[in-house]
Amino acid sequence: MHDHSHDHSHDHAHSHALVDESIKRSREGLHAVVQSLLVLGATALAQLIVYVLSGSVALLADLVHNFGDALTAVPLAIAFVLGSAVAERRAGLAVVAAIFGSACFAGVEAVRRLVHPTTPHHVAVIAIAGAIGFAGNWFAARIRTRAGRRLDSPALVADGAHARTDAYVSLAVVASAVAIASGWSAGDPIIGLAITAVIFLVTWEAWRTVRREHVVG
Q: Most buried pick, 14, 22, 72, 169, via CB within 10 A?
């Protein structure tokens, strides 16, 4: 009788520890997701203001993508709140879908601007907006990647790699500003298409990562 009581107490303590770890993981994951949402949301909002003033297609491609990235925090947050591995994998698929959708939208706008060319305004501000995009994405990538590795979350790791690539993509907006300043107005939609192509590549890599986790899981 004494041994049975001891074993039951040990099992109860062990189970309680597992629950605590699950709650801790969910809270840490949610915290990382919310942080990246705030960073990318503020980044995209700042770029949106500049786009309204300038009309740069390259900047549009970058800000639409950043808005899409910010929105991917919603399914990831739900997955961590539910504490479900299945929900987390599905959140990874939602991330891929958001990236793909933003790439399609940006590509259509870039082609439309090539067919109906206009010269963007406020070139210096466009360059600043590109720098803001770089900083915002780089910071979001650090948040997501660190949390993803610590929590063993493939969705967060994939999202972090994606945001890191986006940081360099944002520098293309600076290149667009230089092209416009030099008198090459067609450079803006062409760079917008280049950004779109990179986004499609990121979409493919993110899909491979998430799909691999589905197969393994």
A: 72
Angstrom distance (rounded) from CA 143 to CA 163: 10
Q: What's the rounded mean pLDDT across residues 93-102?
A: 78
For residue range 150-194, what is the model confidence (pLDDT) as tens digits?
A: 888 877 887 788 788 788 888 889 999 999 999 888 889 898 888
Domains plus CATH for the chain? 2-216 (1.20.1510)
- The stretch 32-52 carries a mean pLDDT of 91
